[in-house]
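[09:14] KT: can someone run the structure on this one? pasting the chain below
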Amino acid sequence: MSRLFDLTGKVAVALGGNSTLGGSIAKGLAEHGAKVAIVGRNMETAEEVTKEINEAGGEARSFQADVSDLSTVEKVAKEIEGWAGGWDILMNAPGMNSPTPYFELKTDEWDKIMDVNLRGVVFATQIFAKKMVEQDRGGSIINISSVSSGPPLSKVFTYSASKAAINNVTQFLARDFAEHNIRVNAIIPGFFPAEQNRKILSEERVNQIMGHTPLNRFGEPEELQGAAVYLASDKASGFVTGELLRVDGGFGSMTI
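[09:31] RB: done, structure tokens below
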């Protein structure tokens, strides 16, 4: 079975690979043989993830870019190409959240979140996917969505809207890129202890989440690795594209 999930010889670009969830996924890809480019705005956290991968016997390097500033993405794509020659896997995990109520929402906050969660992902993918098409060796693009993508969650209006759009983008690109044998899928995480959702996790909110999660607990970041490695592997998921794969403790199967 291990050969199905062997990523040896593959190069993965982890946008947002310096985050809690993105970093864990990047480590999982590296543990299965992928050479990983850790890309993030914060080089300190990117270096921490890179160090952990390299000390564990993997191969990774840190790169700085902000998906809301596409000039930095174009620059980092050239840097990664110089380092690795190209890439086979693109993981989109940048994210920004806010609990601002709808009637208090300002256009600048909406734009800031959308620039990272949607616009940045769409156009960063455009930059990296062009190289994947030119390489003509197929590949896998993995977008990190959210259970808030539908139905939306209360308290995170803009975030929910951005993630709903990511699901749509995932399925659109799955069809567009199929002729190039580039698969496009999304992982829909449930509630994990990521930095961006801690600010809204009051005791009442936690109780609401647990009441809606059959497994009655939060997920651990490492529990996203298996889904990502599966979607990254051509041997394990070569006929899987346009899929929205839930890793949510059963959250999406519940109503009341």
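[09:33] KT: thanks! Residues 2-244 form a domain with the Rossmann fold fold (CATH 3.40.50.720).
[09:34] RB: yep, looked fine to me
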